[in-house]
Amino acid sequence: MKESLEMNVLSVFNGMSCGRLALERAGIKVDKYYSSEIDKYAIQIADNNYPEDIPHKLGDVTKWREWDIDWSSIDLIIAGSPCQGFSVAGKQLNFEDPRSKLFFEFVDILNVIKIYNPNVKFMLENVNMKQEYKDIITGYMGVEPIMINSALVSAQRRKRWHWTNIPNVEQPEDKGILLQDIVFDDALVDRQKSHAIIGSIGRTTTREYFKKHQGQLVYDVTMLSNVYGGFKEKTPRIHNDGKSVTIRTAKDGGHIPLLVTSNLFLTKKALEYTDRKVANGRTRWNFGHHSDVRNSKSATVVANFFKGVPYNVIKDWNCTRKVHPVECERLQTLPDGYTEGVSNTQRYKMLGNGWTVDVIAHIFKGLKGGTMKLEIIERQIKELEEAKVEMLQNYKKDNNLKKLITTGGELHNEEVRLKESKRLEEKRISDISEEMAMEVYLHSEEYFMGGEY
Q1: Domain containing 13: what range?
Q2: Domain boundary among 340, 368, 396
């Protein structure tokens, strides 16, 4: 028999099972984890990490009426319905977007479960969106959403709304995790927190990052050698392995390493200044104050740099790179290698569509308080009573007294255990209520007026 706080969970739009991992981190034991998902790559990763959940795969959410599931057994339903129609980064087609319309499938499923289990807990996550869209979702969910920024628990700025009836959800404490903390050792960053990870993160271009402030790039700690043109080489060698080349002396200086460090990178503000058009449609890149390592001579060194003017810089060698899938996993607070087994393209996609696990785990911790445990025990007692009726019906069919005695004894022991668990949980809730009542009284006017202070 299962323990008292083993929950039956239904995850709609399950993705790669971030919800399952969040429950695990929150210390919530799961009996059955039902999931609905159609992306075969996300399903593959979910199966790789939680093979025990494979028997409870449900498939397409639009076919939920065909699912073989006991709705009354569901203790928690969770969903991150497709957000493309709401996202400020998208076309904002709202509920006209066929993906975002799937929200209503979730609402229908939730309403059916409430018929059989009015105490079911739920959590819906979605992107930051226009107030009018948020109001519509709030109207259907019946609770006000909670905005949590992933920046509090990760190195990523990611604002998301959460509609939930899980009690006592407050803002998580700031863990102080910065982008530099999670990138590989050979990388440098130009910001404390990354932009939000989205499905197209793996296709981030320098223009998107520096001009549109979207996606995320990091810098390689790049070593250039042969920068003085020795050994008749016309371009510098670039080394990204974190190791210095062998230092040698040669005519015209060969293999002289140059390590590029973060304080030498142009800031976003400097790049915008240099890109800005001036007279005759030119930009400051055309002024001839920038050098290219592929040329034999540098541009004239000018004095403006001491005032912060971004001249005297080396141009045209690329030291930015995409964020690695493992770094994206860290930004979403997943274990390193969680999404291994599919192409990087698919890894980026599911990571961008996924949840920041520690945010969801923080919300799920509220399931351990309140009356949730008592509600699960009461459901299990009801299931036990139904099992006893079924046992007697089977006995009438096969007249197997030995089986009746054995099964009856097991059910009786389980009933005793559950009723004792119920008694203890009711006492715990009662004690908490009395403590809260006393706390209110100690801060009340009656207490102070009574002269007891």
Answers
A1: 6-173+354-368
A2: 368
